[in-house]
Design a protein that fits this description.
Helix content: 25-40%
Structural class: alpha+beta
Number of strands: 18
CATH superfamily of the largest domain: Zn peptidases
Distance between the termini: 23 Å
Radius of gyration: 23 Å
CATH architecture of the largest domain: 3-Layer(aba) Sandwich
Bound molecules: glyoxylic acid, manganese (II) ion
Strand content: 25-35%
CATH topology of the largest domain: Aminopeptidase
Number of domains: 2
Order of helices and strands: HEEHEEEHEHHHEHEEEHEEEEHEEHEHEH
Oligomer: single chain
Amino acid sequence: MELLKNKVEETSKKITQYGYQEGAGMTRLLYTEEWLAAQNTFLDLFEKNGLQAYSDDVGNVYGRLEGREYPDQVIMSGSHIDTVVNGGNLDGQFGIEAAFIALQYLKDKHGSPKRTLEVVSLAEEEGSRFPYVFWGSKNIVGIADNEAVKGLTDNKGVNFVDAMRECGFDFATDRTVRKDIKAFIELHIEQGKVLETEGKQLGVVTSIAGQRRYNITLKGEANHAGTTPMGYRKDTVYAFSKICSQSIDKAKAEGDPLVLTFGKVVPKPNTVNVVPGETLFSMDCRHTDKDKLISFSNQMVEDMKQICAEMEIEIDVDLWMDEEPIPMDPTLVDLIDTTFEAKGANYRRMHSGAGHDSQIFAPRIPTGMIFIPSVAGISHNPAEHTDISDLTVGVEALINVLYELAYK
Ligand code: GLV
Ligand code: MN
Ligand code: MN
């Protein structure tokens, strides 16, 4: 336990330095300098600790411990290296650290596994730099949309392909699709309050909520704040405020597990004495039930169109992410459950409200997820935290599950 705790602290320190800013938490976006430094650090750590280290065409990084009986059957574990803007150092990062530590522990204690074990540090999951999510995992299973990403630019106008080249990766489209992964296990912080509130140490994820993300643009008329009487305005912030408050009231009335968020709002020209003629905003809607997700989010779009029509404001709605709710593999859910039960763990089954790379793997590869508690349920925030004792319990749990899958 002490050994694992020390490894967690040591590894976390090495990776967190890339993207951490005092008071601002972690910002490590796809294909940036800090992203590349973190991926290279993992490559180096994997190599130095006796794993075969390599990266693929888009910058996913792997550490491989070859199986002695079934080398072509890969049991993979890991998570994503990118973060949101001003996030914490556990979302994604900890799942990679835990898998790396688990592989070292298993190698030292039990030698070569029967099946190959691989830790993966996935290139991107959050969609924080470019409006495209799961770039890392989608490339592994061969479902990345190359045409869609080609035209994307970040907030500074940098093109996706140029950012990728800048980090040393060509935009070749004949990328290797992995067919050898027999199971994927992701350890992640819960990012919610359920485990903490119920005093549980571990969660076995049964499904991941579906989510739809939109970029919406309202176009009214920019004009002088002093000379334009209230009745003559086409004020897009006013329209946004109506849309936001009405939609959130409806989401509250709908109740759990539906969630609705307007996380990004950009009024233009965003200055004190001009009626805002344009407003861009995002809408993120999630539910564990596909039909309810679709009908509720469609209704929100209809409502906002009506509000805009009444205010003579133009509206453009871009649904750029539409992910269905995804169940985890029932056999793996049972195996994780049985493993926890056998070790006397204090755990529960639960769904995930957050999106994860596991939802990309799950329809194609047997996939399971393990949650550990988040203090006060805070995540996507510099205050994101999990006690070291809970982090260590998470690594132990992952070790036990990977042992079942790779050594038995
Ligand atoms: C990813 O972290 C998401 O669920 O927004
Ligand atoms: Mn996240
Ligand atoms: Mn995550």
